[in-house]
Amino acid sequence: MIFSTLEHILTHISFSVISIVISIHLITLLVNEIVGLYDLSKKAMTITFFCVTGLLITRWFFSGHLPFSDLYESLIFLSWGFSIFHMVPFFKKDKNHLSTIIAPSVIFTQGFATSGLLTKMHQSVILVPALQSHWLMMHVSMMILGYAALLCGSLLSVAILVITFQEVIQILAFTKNNERNNVLRTTSFSSSRNYYRSQFIQQLDRWGYRIISLGFLFLTIGILSGAVWANEAWGSYWNWDPKETWAFITWTIFAIYLHTRKNKKLEGVNSSIVASIGFLIIWVCYLGINLLGIGLHSYGSFTSN
């Protein structure tokens, strides 16, 4: 009863605090002069991280096993992973908006995990035989951390596409409506704005590449450890289960991203497009298959509960 109450309190505190964090980020995007709000968001995100960490530890002690057994627990762990990558830019001295782009992912996973759709999963149950293995921690933790990193990195790529598309529209509108007597006045302002926009895009691209590279490493380890686990549990390293198939598709998409990122002719917008496609593929692999409850991985699904 005590653990259940503590879990309930930590869940609502973390959800409430991250909601405040997002509000602060939106305000700081509009009003850059309010530095105090940005500092407050750093402290609030730290509180969220420790609340989610406490939630996972409480769930671990309360259930008697690692909190990776169902969709609810994996969503909480995914939210924990998002909160880590959300705080990474805070270690930079200069103020940036990378965390603003990543923050909604935390509230989305927290909101979905605590929604009425997964109420039955809030009650801890005994692990099914397939999950009673020492490979549980290695495989599931690496996969979810990989998803978290790849999703965060992909969001930065989506932001690059949005900014680039907006810039193209503005250039077209400027060319159409440009008047000769405004050329000198607007050119200086436009070049200054384009410089800072270019710097911001480079920052997004640099951080996106780093985070996706880390996520790709996690995903690779997760797939390999999962193959070994599958051989022990089902007698085959690969069964072309829907979850396995989509995980392989996800791995392939981001392998293509890393290739395009290394190719000078394809980097930039092209690699961002690939990463944006990967963003959708990950949600199909992680959430879509679980919601459908099909294949050998149905024990972690929504419909099986």
UniProtKB/TrEMBL annotation:
<feature type="transmembrane region" description="Helical">
    <location>
        <begin position="74"/>
        <end position="91"/>
    </location>
</feature>
<dbReference type="InterPro" id="IPR002541">
    <property type="entry name" value="Cyt_c_assembly"/>
</dbReference>
<keyword id="KW-0472">Membrane</keyword>
<dbReference type="InterPro" id="IPR017562">
    <property type="entry name" value="Cyt_c_biogenesis_CcsA"/>
</dbReference>
<feature type="domain" description="Cytochrome c assembly protein">
    <location>
        <begin position="69"/>
        <end position="297"/>
    </location>
</feature>
<keyword id="KW-0934">Plastid</keyword>
<keyword id="KW-1133">Transmembrane helix</keyword>
<comment type="function">
    <text>Required during biogenesis of c-type cytochromes (cytochrome c6 and cytochrome f) at the step of heme attachment.</text>
</comment>
<feature type="transmembrane region" description="Helical">
    <location>
        <begin position="207"/>
        <end position="230"/>
    </location>
</feature>
<dbReference type="GO" id="GO:0017004">
    <property type="term" value="P:cytochrome complex assembly"/>
</dbReference>
<protein>
    <recommendedName>
        <fullName>Cytochrome c biogenesis protein CcsA</fullName>
    </recommendedName>
</protein>
<feature type="transmembrane region" description="Helical">
    <location>
        <begin position="98"/>
        <end position="118"/>
    </location>
</feature>
<dbReference type="GO" id="GO:0020037">
    <property type="term" value="F:heme binding"/>
</dbReference>
<dbReference type="GO" id="GO:0005886">
    <property type="term" value="C:plasma membrane"/>
</dbReference>
<feature type="transmembrane region" description="Helical">
    <location>
        <begin position="245"/>
        <end position="260"/>
    </location>
</feature>
<feature type="transmembrane region" description="Helical">
    <location>
        <begin position="272"/>
        <end position="296"/>
    </location>
</feature>
<dbReference type="InterPro" id="IPR045062">
    <property type="entry name" value="Cyt_c_biogenesis_CcsA/CcmC"/>
</dbReference>
<keyword id="KW-0150">Chloroplast</keyword>
<keyword id="KW-0201">Cytochrome c-type biogenesis</keyword>
<keyword id="KW-0793">Thylakoid</keyword>
<dbReference type="GO" id="GO:0009535">
    <property type="term" value="C:chloroplast thylakoid membrane"/>
</dbReference>
<dbReference type="Pfam" id="PF01578">
    <property type="entry name" value="Cytochrom_C_asm"/>
</dbReference>
<comment type="subunit">
    <text>May interact with Ccs1.</text>
</comment>
<feature type="transmembrane region" description="Helical">
    <location>
        <begin position="138"/>
        <end position="163"/>
    </location>
</feature>
<keyword id="KW-0812">Transmembrane</keyword>
<comment type="similarity">
    <text>Belongs to the CcmF/CycK/Ccl1/NrfE/CcsA family.</text>
</comment>
<feature type="transmembrane region" description="Helical">
    <location>
        <begin position="12"/>
        <end position="32"/>
    </location>
</feature>
<feature type="transmembrane region" description="Helical">
    <location>
        <begin position="44"/>
        <end position="62"/>
    </location>
</feature>
